[in-house]
Amino acid sequence: MEYNIITSGSKIVIELTGRLDTTTAPKLDAFIHSSLEGINELCIDMERLEYISSAGLRVLLAAQRIMDKQGRMIITGCREEITEIFDITGFSDILTIE
Fold first, then answer.
1. CA distances from 20 to 8, 12, 68 (A)
2. What does the pLDDT look like over 74-93, one tens digit per residue?
3. Which of 22, 68, 90, 91 is a good FRET partner for 82, with 20 to 30 A between their CA atoms?
4. What is the Cα–Cα distance from 98 to 88, expressed in whole angstroms?
């Protein structure tokens, strides 16, 4: 997985590419936990994300918990396969997906 970061004031956009799994999730988790201070909007663009595992879902859940306290988090650009995973796991009820 690769990610591109776009910061604008108190907003961060993270564009994900590839696979968010047990190998790559810790890197994203570390970035999110170290970068959200003072941020009130987090957007995660999944247009180029091909796969997400339970480890990736845990990273999203942790980010959502942080952002619930200080702003909002949105997920954009989900492929059908990713949307299905969110639906099956119930994450589509937890996350704001546009």
1. 24, 18, 22
2. 999 999 999 999 999 999 99
3. 68
4. 17
Please give the backbone phi and psi of residue 54, each rounded to the nearest 5 degrees, phi first.
-65, -30
Q: In angstroms, how far is CA 44 from the centroid of its own chain?
A: 5
Interatomic CA distance for residues 45 and 6, integer angstroms: 11
CB 57 within 8 A of CB 27: no
Q: What is the pTM of this model?
A: 0.92
Residue extents of the structural domains in the chain: 2-97
CATH number of 2-97: 3.30.750.24
Helix axes 25-35, 54-70, angle to 10 degrees: 10
Is there a contact between 76 and 45 (Cβ–Cβ < 8 Å)? yes
Tell me the β-bridge partners of 29.
none
- Which pLDDT tens digit goes with each residue over 44-59? 999 999 999 999 999 9
